[in-house]
Amino acid sequence: MKGSAMKAKIRTAVLQLKQGDLTAEAVDAIVNAANSSLLGGGGVDGAIHRAAGPTLLEECKRVRAERGTCAPGEAVITGGGNLKARFVIHTVGPIWQGGGRGEPDVLASAYRRSLERAAAAGARRVAFPSISTGAFGYPVADAARVALDAVAGWLNEHATVDAVTFVLYDARTFEAYKRALRETHGAAVMS
Ligand code: AR6
To answer: Which CATH architecture has domain 6-190?
Structure first.
């Protein structure tokens, strides 16, 4: 059973948490938790490439040939192939190394740079996975706070994105994000 979604109002935008499959999300842009190679992988990256079809990898290869690999904390944008989303924003989160190697800053940057890319493309509805908390090993409770602070902070400063949805795959991750949203932005939560 999937728990119910949770929403918060951040200035004029809505920040939403829900449980589900990011690849099915009908928004303007979905964000991929990629790796620096931009050439695909497992987890949500593999699922996005499978759902989007082979044009996504072709486009990623073109981006890579033009600008090289994507550093952790940076983001690039491609079309969405067969996805409902028009764009895929590929960002690279930090690999967890204990927390003392700048991981929170790199994670926050991945979210902010993704929103910048979305805004530059005119994408007003954006959906994210929980970046770095799978293969990259970032503890989910800590990652959730960083993610929500980064996104809410960005939405407070920019009116170019209307809706950000975190689409969280498993119940444990979804619950961790709900807890973090209540703790960090409880006053903004809409019933
Ligand atoms: N929809 C939403 N979330 C998903 C989906 C999905 N379809 N599938 C998995 N997740 P991960 P990372 C969740 O490992 O930690 C790849 O190989 C998953 O349950 O996808 O940033 C890349 O190529 C977890 O909560 O990303 C990189 O090499 C979250 O997505 C590396 O993994 C992130 O898990 C990136 O690792």
So the answer is: 3-Layer(aba) Sandwich (3.40)
Mean of pLDDT values over 148-165:
98
**Model confidence over 112-152: pLDDT tens digits?**
999 999 999 999 999 999 999 999 999 999 999 999 999 99
Q: Ligand 1 in contact with 176 (CB < 6 A)?
A: no
CB distance 25 to ligand 1 below 6 Å: no
User: Ligand 1 mean position to 48 CA, how many Å?
Assistant: 10
Active-site annotation holds for 45? yes
Atom 27 of ligand 1, residue of closest alpha carbon: 35
Contact 109, 50 (CB under 8 A): no
- Angle, helix 43-52 to helix 54-67, in steps of 10 degrees: 110
What pLDDT score was predicted for residue 1? 58
